[in-house]
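Our example pasted here:


***
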Amino acid sequence: MAPKSSTETVDAISASPPARQEVLLGHSESAWSHHSLLSLFVVFWGSNFVLAEVALREMAPISFSVARFIVGGGALIAVLYGQSTIQARRKGQAVPLFPRLERRDWPRLFLVAILGALLAPWLGIEGLGLTHGARASLWLALGPALSSGIGYLLKTERIGRTGFVGVALAGMGTFALAADGLLPGRTFWLGDLLLFVALACAVAELHLIKPLAQKYGATPMVTSRTVMGGVLYLLLASPALVGEAWGSLGLWTWIAILAGGAVGVGIGQWVKVRALDVLGPTRVVLYGNLVPLAALVVAWLALNTVPSVLEVLAGALIIAGSVLLQRLDPKHISDKAVLAPPTE
């Protein structure tokens, strides 16, 4: 099937029923707000890597991760409560904080919680503890290529020739980054492996949570997944939390826990899931390509961390591959023309 041109897309909207026209045009008009929010959070996410690197000098990785996750969960609950209060005033009746899920949706939500709220943060912070913040952010840039690969296997996304070239470039960048971690004196291979698995869990979560977000709303679902996974994560990390010297932690470590948790982990996750309906999982993950640039600059200014030649080459290949895949592959772009109606 040949990709649709912009003219054909406009004609398709014009030929749609009035209700469908409103949905499609509404998505087009609301996309800019999602792009703006995601662009803003790129700076927060990039700084989060550097703040985490500083905090891990004083704390065990799992203790820091769980503490930040608890703060993020609290921020999400506050957002959900505020949203429910506003909806209750509009409707003139009480609105439940968490929607009642159908029985068939519980296994998916539980899997999402395990992948996104337990394995991804746990493996990611352990991997960061074995590398450094700027390098960890480079692995995040692999997200769009990995997302497209998962979408291709699940038959939720199509990839054309240009897209396959992009995936190949991203694969070469991954190989260069992995090879750099194996060089004598670097010893980043275990951290790289953990970061890659954490990224795979996070990307898979975005694909799995999208139907739930469409059905029940982004905020209730991302909060539910955070609460469920957070309880399991807290139980897993309880021995480390008890042994942590909380009173001796420095100011920047507390900033990393409180600000990084509330803004980066909590509100940031809500921003991503909320944008899934309009932008799609892979385009949301695409913003991860900008995070390494922010992290590299912040790490250079704050910690004087200078990236290696292979890290720069790997980042360039991964980002170039993602741009080819997301912006220049007409077959992939054409799949974004028809979108589901917004839930919020």
Observations:
- The chain has one domain: 38-93+103-334.
- The two ends are 33 Å apart (CA to CA).
